[in-house]
Amino acid sequence: MTSTTPTGPAIAIDDLTRTFRGPQGRVKHAVDGLTLHVERGEMMGLLGPNGAGKTSTAKILMTVLLPTSGSARILDHDVVTQAQSVRRLTGVILGGDAGLYARLSARDNLALFADLYGIPYRQQKRRIQELLDLVGLLKDERKRVESFSRGMKQRLHIARGLLHDPEVVILDEPSNGIDPVGARELRVLVREQVRAGRTVLLTTHYMFEADELCDRVAVMRDGKKVAEGTPESLKKQSDGQVVLTVEVDSAAEEHLTRLRAVPGVHSAALAELDGKQVISVQSGQQTDVTAVVLDRLRDLTIRQVSKREPTLEDAYVSLISGGRP
Ligand SMILES: Nc1ncnc2c1ncn2[C@@H]1O[C@H](COP(=O)(O)OP(=O)(O)OP(=O)(O)O)[C@@H](O)[C@H]1O
Ligand SMILES: [Mg+2]
For the chain, does the N or the C end have fewer beta carbons within 10 angstroms? Predict the structure, then answer.
């Protein structure tokens, strides 16, 4: 990897805003005054519910969406005025079906993009070979991409994104739709990129993935940053809290409302886990809310009750659901 000047953050987003005009001319803020700095060699996770503004932020960094105001810089190159340098320095991995030629083989796809990136022909062969090996597609290199599974396409996207040896890599939901074993291999691959000295920004909805991979995470909601820190520090915000989980049948929003009104309860959320309904209740350690919680749920069939330490997902749920009208 050819290194640029070793000063300043790899990604510097300052007071960035992007608005869209909705129906009836209403202005909607996809990104709303976001400031976020990612240091060189760091892996940063961008988390947040659907519509929080993660992809919009990523697109601005990839120079495919213009900011309305504020600035975004990659290795000190402005995404608007120096878009071409930004594209040279940044590898973009979006996933899905777009961006690959279905009728071409994996190798031919990479050769085509290597041409587009202006990689000298002499270097192309070796680079493509290295990347196919890195993403584990050497044995499938001659197969047409249309015959690839989602996970194989995802790995090819990664190879494509790394072709021009970028210093900064942006991945938008890389493990979306990938099976657990494939997702684990993918995480190893992403981690290797940071080991190789690259800076990575990744969006994900999988909290355990963010916890396992990221040096720091930022949580967005409604275009704004609502939290930032190491996964450990976010979990610590839930410090002194315990999570009571109650497996039930057919809980409704009304049950959560009841639980949120219990003194000492910080948050209550409902999730489907392996076809089971599980209510998670976060509360302070001082007061044991178990008896009251079970009393408030007495109209439900309770299958199992247990207690555990907060995870990053609990910290996230509490951040996102906190203050929601
Ligand atoms: N081209 C567009 N035109 C109008 N509104 C848009 C456009 N692109 C995004 N938005 C809006 O901006 C907001 C943020 O969208 P964005 O795709 O950035 O969210 P996200 O955090 O990536 O969500 P998800 O987790 O669902 O991928 C949403 O309300 C979305 O509807
Ligand atoms: Mg998105």
Answer: C
Tell me how crowded residue 29 is: count the other CB atoms within 10 A of its CB. 17
Distance of CA 106 from the midpoint of ligand 2 (Å): 26
Predicted TM-score of the model (pTM): 0.85
Centre of ligand 1 from the C-alpha of residue 30, in Å: 6
For the segment 109-137, what is each residue's pLDDT rounded down to a tens digit? 999 999 988 899 889 999 999 999 999 99
CB atoms within 10 A of CB 311: 17
pLDDT given at position 4: 56
> Is 11-234 assigned to CATH 3.40.50.300?
yes
Instruction: Please name the fold of domain 240-309.
Output: Alpha-Beta Plaits (3.30.70)
Read off the pLDDT of residues 180-225 as tens digits, 9 standing for 90 and up. 888 888 899 899 999 999 999 999 999 999 999 999 999 999 999 9
45 lines ligand 1 (CB under 6 A): no
C-alpha 183/C-alpha 203 separation (Å) is 14
